[in-house]
Amino acid sequence: MAGLWRGCGRLLAWRPGAAQALTAGALMGAGDVIAQQLVERRGLRGHHSPRTLKMMVIGFCFVGPVVGGWYKILDQLILGTTKVVAVKKMVLDQGAFAPCFLGCFLAITGAMNGLSVEENWSKIQQDYTDTLLTNYCIWPPVQMANFYFVPLKHRLAVVQCVAILWNCYLSWKANRM
Fold it and tell me: What is the pTM of this model?
């Protein structure tokens, strides 16, 4: 396990964007597996592997790069590491980034599930408010700790570890038809 951790640390130092994308993809996939097996109780025979693969692709191509990039921008916009700075970052993250990110996530998931534009818009209208309110129950305290205690290069990994359960919820919510 220590060797795996060191290898991840080397990849993060050498290619931070790739490491963040791989981490996000793997953990989005893990969240979907948990959603299908523990929440939806599909069992191994009923597991929908293409759905897990889609969630992993969304993690690799969207979640990892976008969230990792957002943290870099946020650190450039609001400098420092004090408690007040952490509060400012959390407010901007949850007030501006989260609403946009969740809308894009739901739209991308709907498109990857083959929904028409009209069906996708209807699904977004159905799920967006509830998803955003659930986000506000979970993420503000996590982000406060993340922005105050965690160095920039590890923030996405910390968030993604907490996000295994969040990803489970998102996968369940986004894939309900």
Answer: 0.84
